[in-house]
Task: inverse folding
Protein backbone atom coordinates (compact mmCIF):
# COMPACT_ATOMS: atom_id res chain seq x y z
CA UNK A 1 0.00 0.00 0.00
CA UNK A 2 2.87 2.32 0.80
CA UNK A 3 4.36 1.68 -2.66
CA UNK A 4 1.10 2.66 -4.36
CA UNK A 5 0.89 5.86 -2.30
CA UNK A 6 4.49 6.74 -3.23
CA UNK A 7 3.76 6.05 -6.89
CA UNK A 8 0.66 8.27 -6.86
CA UNK A 9 2.60 11.03 -5.07
CA UNK A 10 4.81 11.47 -8.14
CA UNK A 11 3.13 13.59 -10.86
CA UNK A 12 5.52 12.35 -13.59
CA UNK A 13 4.70 8.73 -12.77
CA UNK A 14 0.96 9.43 -12.77
CA UNK A 15 1.31 11.28 -16.09
CA UNK A 16 3.14 8.31 -17.63
CA UNK A 17 0.48 5.94 -16.32
CA UNK A 18 -2.30 8.10 -17.78
CA UNK A 19 -0.47 8.41 -21.10
CA UNK A 20 0.05 4.65 -21.31
CA UNK A 21 -3.61 4.11 -20.43
CA UNK A 22 -4.66 6.41 -23.27
CA UNK A 23 -2.36 4.58 -25.70
CA UNK A 24 -3.81 1.23 -24.60
CA UNK A 25 -7.35 2.53 -25.01
CA UNK A 26 -6.63 3.75 -28.54
CA UNK A 27 -5.07 0.39 -29.37
CA UNK A 28 -8.08 -1.41 -27.90
CA UNK A 29 -10.45 0.77 -29.95
CA UNK A 30 -8.62 -0.21 -33.14
CA UNK A 31 -8.80 -3.87 -32.08
CA UNK A 32 -12.56 -3.61 -31.53
CA UNK A 33 -12.96 -1.91 -34.90
CA UNK A 34 -10.61 -3.88 -37.13
CA UNK A 35 -10.46 -7.32 -35.49
CA UNK A 36 -13.93 -7.63 -33.97
CA UNK A 37 -15.53 -5.70 -36.85
CA UNK A 38 -17.53 -3.24 -34.75
CA UNK A 39 -17.71 0.11 -36.52
CA UNK A 40 -17.34 3.17 -34.28
CA UNK A 41 -20.00 5.84 -34.28
CA UNK A 42 -19.16 9.56 -34.63
CA UNK A 43 -19.18 10.04 -30.85
CA UNK A 44 -16.83 7.06 -30.42
CA UNK A 45 -14.46 8.66 -32.93
CA UNK A 46 -14.49 11.94 -31.00
CA UNK A 47 -13.64 10.04 -27.81
CA UNK A 48 -10.85 8.20 -29.63
CA UNK A 49 -9.42 11.52 -30.87
CA UNK A 50 -9.60 12.84 -27.31
CA UNK A 51 -7.54 9.90 -26.04
CA UNK A 52 -5.07 10.39 -28.91
CA UNK A 53 -4.76 14.08 -28.01
CA UNK A 54 -4.12 13.26 -24.37
CA UNK A 55 -1.19 10.90 -25.09
CA UNK A 56 1.42 13.55 -25.99
CA UNK A 57 0.12 15.90 -23.31
CA UNK A 58 0.59 13.32 -20.55
CA UNK A 59 4.01 12.22 -21.82
CA UNK A 60 5.16 15.84 -22.13
CA UNK A 61 3.91 16.54 -18.60
CA UNK A 62 5.93 13.58 -17.35
CA UNK A 63 9.11 15.18 -18.73
CA UNK A 64 8.52 18.61 -17.23
CA UNK A 65 9.84 19.84 -13.90
CA UNK A 66 7.60 18.46 -11.15
CA UNK A 67 5.08 21.09 -10.00
CA UNK A 68 6.51 23.56 -12.51
CA UNK A 69 4.36 25.93 -14.57
CA UNK A 70 4.78 23.90 -17.75
CA UNK A 71 3.66 20.69 -16.08
CA UNK A 72 0.68 22.38 -14.44
CA UNK A 73 -0.24 24.00 -17.76
CA UNK A 74 -0.17 20.62 -19.45
CA UNK A 75 -2.30 19.13 -16.68
CA UNK A 76 -4.82 21.97 -17.13
CA UNK A 77 -4.88 21.31 -20.88
CA UNK A 78 -5.43 17.61 -20.20
CA UNK A 79 -8.21 18.50 -17.75
CA UNK A 80 -10.03 20.54 -20.41
CA UNK A 81 -9.73 17.71 -22.96
CA UNK A 82 -10.79 15.16 -20.36
CA UNK A 83 -13.87 17.19 -19.44
CA UNK A 84 -14.76 17.36 -23.13
CA UNK A 85 -14.39 13.60 -23.43
CA UNK A 86 -16.45 13.16 -20.28
CA UNK A 87 -19.22 15.25 -21.82
CA UNK A 88 -19.19 13.29 -25.11
CA UNK A 89 -19.17 9.93 -23.30
CA UNK A 90 -21.96 11.15 -21.01
CA UNK A 91 -24.04 12.26 -24.00
CA UNK A 92 -23.51 8.92 -25.75
CA UNK A 93 -24.46 7.07 -22.56
CA UNK A 94 -27.63 9.17 -22.43
CA UNK A 95 -28.41 8.23 -26.05
CA UNK A 96 -27.93 4.57 -25.19
CA UNK A 97 -30.09 4.70 -22.09
CA UNK A 98 -32.88 6.73 -23.68
CA UNK A 99 -32.86 6.05 -27.43
CA UNK A 100 -35.33 8.02 -29.50
CA UNK A 101 -37.17 6.25 -32.30
CA UNK A 102 -35.32 8.27 -34.95
CA UNK A 103 -31.96 7.51 -33.36
CA UNK A 104 -32.35 3.81 -34.18
CA UNK A 105 -31.32 4.27 -37.82
CA UNK A 106 -27.69 3.80 -38.86
CA UNK A 107 -25.44 6.48 -40.28
CA UNK A 108 -22.70 6.49 -42.88
CA UNK A 109 -19.18 5.59 -41.83
CA UNK A 110 -16.60 8.30 -41.27
CA UNK A 111 -14.53 7.24 -44.29
CA UNK A 112 -17.59 7.46 -46.57
CA UNK A 113 -18.49 10.89 -45.19
CA UNK A 114 -14.92 12.17 -45.74
CA UNK A 115 -14.98 10.86 -49.33
CA UNK A 116 -18.33 12.41 -50.22
CA UNK A 117 -18.71 15.59 -48.12
CA UNK A 118 -16.86 18.76 -47.27
CA UNK A 119 -14.84 18.65 -44.05
CA UNK A 120 -17.10 21.24 -42.42
CA UNK A 121 -20.16 19.12 -43.15
CA UNK A 122 -18.41 16.01 -41.80
CA UNK A 123 -17.56 17.88 -38.59
CA UNK A 124 -21.16 19.02 -38.29
CA UNK A 125 -22.35 15.42 -38.67
CA UNK A 126 -19.79 14.13 -36.17
CA UNK A 127 -21.29 16.35 -33.53
CA UNK A 128 -24.82 15.34 -34.52
CA UNK A 129 -25.27 11.88 -33.05
CA UNK A 130 -26.84 9.33 -35.35
CA UNK A 131 -28.38 5.91 -34.89
CA UNK A 132 -25.31 3.79 -34.30
CA UNK A 133 -24.38 5.92 -31.30
CA UNK A 134 -27.20 4.22 -29.41
CA UNK A 135 -25.95 0.70 -30.17
CA UNK A 136 -25.34 -1.24 -26.97
CA UNK A 137 -24.62 -4.67 -28.45
CA UNK A 138 -20.93 -4.76 -27.49
CA UNK A 139 -20.19 -4.76 -23.77
CA UNK A 140 -17.08 -5.07 -21.67
CA UNK A 141 -17.41 -6.02 -18.00
CA UNK A 142 -21.16 -5.48 -18.37
CA UNK A 143 -20.74 -1.87 -19.53
CA UNK A 144 -21.24 -0.44 -22.98
CA UNK A 145 -18.15 1.14 -24.49
CA UNK A 146 -19.63 4.58 -23.84
CA UNK A 147 -20.24 3.77 -20.18
CA UNK A 148 -16.70 2.38 -19.82
CA UNK A 149 -15.31 5.50 -21.50
CA UNK A 150 -17.41 7.67 -19.18
CA UNK A 151 -15.86 5.96 -16.14
CA UNK A 152 -12.36 6.26 -17.61
CA UNK A 153 -12.78 9.98 -18.34
CA UNK A 154 -14.20 10.43 -14.83
CA UNK A 155 -11.18 8.70 -13.28
CA UNK A 156 -8.86 10.84 -15.43
CA UNK A 157 -10.70 13.97 -14.26
CA UNK A 158 -10.37 12.97 -10.61
CA UNK A 159 -6.67 12.14 -11.09
CA UNK A 160 -6.04 15.52 -12.70
CA UNK A 161 -7.93 17.33 -9.95
CA UNK A 162 -5.72 15.59 -7.38
CA UNK A 163 -2.57 16.49 -9.35
CA UNK A 164 -3.59 20.12 -9.76
CA UNK A 165 -4.56 20.54 -6.10
CA UNK A 166 -1.33 19.02 -4.82
CA UNK A 167 1.39 21.42 -3.79
CA UNK A 168 5.10 20.58 -3.73
CA UNK A 169 6.49 19.42 -0.42
CA UNK A 170 8.42 22.14 1.42
CA UNK A 171 12.17 21.67 1.20
Result:
Amino acid sequence: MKTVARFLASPPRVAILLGLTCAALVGASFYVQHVLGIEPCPLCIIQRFTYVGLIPIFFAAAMMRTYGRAQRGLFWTAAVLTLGGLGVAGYQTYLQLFPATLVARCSASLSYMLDTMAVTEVLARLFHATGDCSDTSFRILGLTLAQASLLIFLSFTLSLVMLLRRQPAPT
